[in-house]
Design a protein that fits this description.
Uridine Diphospho-n-acetylenolpyruvylglucosamine Reductase, domain 2, Uridine Diphospho-n-acetylenolpyruvylglucosamine Reductase, domain 3, four-stranded mixed beta sheet, binds flavin-adenine dinucleotide, single chain, five-stranded antiparallel beta sheet, Uridine Diphospho-n-acetylenolpyruvylglucosamine Reductase, domain 1, alpha+beta, globular
Length: 300
């Protein structure tokens, strides 16, 4: 990785580059071993350069938002973890119905802009932590609304080119967006409605209050661990199987919301993987339902 760092420096890469960066520092679960390389390109030019250098050297890479829906294994990630830097944080309003947000802008910064400018339509993301890039990739949302419902266009980097793709070219699913391997989301445009800042603020606060009542907000988690099976709720099944409070090492099934696995302090990535596996087995035994992970696991 030293050689990669040198090539990047020689070619003018000015963003942060670190070796053996612990992923626990960058993920809401607060677990995960080191990345071989951790790089933060400042803009699209640097991102393009970075990907080019990594691919020429045969180094695998992945993109990280705020790490609120991922788990890196104890062994970490042998390749390069890329986090988009400040050049991807802009939030603009083109006219009063389109909001454009860089992939690294946080959902809370986007909502603050919505309140200030009187733009309604994204209130449902209040309390969903992370970035716009992560929210689009995960088609983040609630039981009623998701990102797919408000997105108009996506700016992506694919095959060394930054381009806009229209809504009709995207395939969104429940908590998923199909992206060709190697595609990085750079930003998104959302169709919004106008409303008064007071009304939007009230909706945002209401949404946050609901989460405060139903989710273990103060704990370290990755949100819902499992995807809801067709017509049911993973949390309900885990609860009915009597698994609330079940622990492996420092990882525990939350007492507040059974689909949240939380770090009670000192948990290791392997504790979460074992706990998730035990939960899946117990739910399958009790109800014959095989739960699938919503959390993206990086085990390389
Ligand atoms: C307390 C809590 C509550 C939550 N509640 C909800 C909820 O109600 N609804 C919900 O949907 N989710 C929820 N989540 C999960 C999580 O917050 C969302 O999935 C969020 O959108 C992930 O954003 P992120 O930036 O953290 O992405 P990350 O976790 O960093 O990444 C998630 C995936 O997206 C990929 N990715 C990230 N950025 C890019 C990019 N620019 N280009 C391409 N791929 C990218 C990553 O490689 C990874 O595969 C919750 C999480 C927590 C901790």
């Amino acid at each position: 990785m030293k050689e990669i760092r040198k090539i990047l420096a020689d070619r003018g890469f000015s963003g942060k580059v670190a070796e053996h960066e612990p992923m626990a520092r960058h993920c809401s679960l607060k677990v995960g071993g080191p990345a071989g390389l951790f790089a933060v390109p400042r803009d699209t030019g640097e991102l393009n350069l970075l990907v080019d250098v990594l691919e020429s050297a045969g180094v695998s890479w992945c993109v990280l938002g705020r790490g609120t829906n991922v788990l890196f294994a104890n062994g970490g990630f042998a390749g390069c973890v890329i986090r988009l830097g400040e050049g991807f944080e802009d939030i603009d309003v083109d006219d009063q119905s389109i909001l454009e947000a860089g992939a690294a802008s946080t959902t809370s910064a986007v909502l603050a802009k919505c309140v200030r400018t009187g733009l309604s339509g994204l209130e449902f993301i209040a309390g969903i932590p992370g970035t716009i890039g992560g929210a689009v990739r995960m088609n983040a949302g609630t039981g009623k609304e998701d990102i797919a419902g408000v997105i108009v266009e996506l700016m992506v980097l694919a095959d060394g080119r930054a381009l806009w793709i229209g809504r009709d070219e995207m395939e969104f699913f429940y908590r998923d967006l199909t992206l060709r391997t190697g595609t990085i989301i750079l930003g998104a445009r959302f169709r919004m409605d106008e409303d008064t800042p007071e009304v939007i603020r009230t909706r945002v606060n209401e949404q946050r209050k609901i989460r405060g009542r139903t989710q273990p907000m103060g704990e370290s988690s990755a949100g819902c661990w499992f995807r809801n099976p067709e017509g049911d709720s993973a949390g309900r099944l885990i609860d009915r199987a009597g698994l609330k409070g079940m622990m492996v090492g420092g990882a525990m099934v939350s007492q507040v919301h059974a689909n949240f696995l939380i770090n009670t302090g000192g948990a290791k990535a392997r504790d979460f993987l074992r706990l998730a596996s035990d939960v899946r087995e117990a739910v399958n035994e009790a109800f014959g339902v095989i739960l699938e992970e919503e959390v993206h696991v990086f085990e390389e």
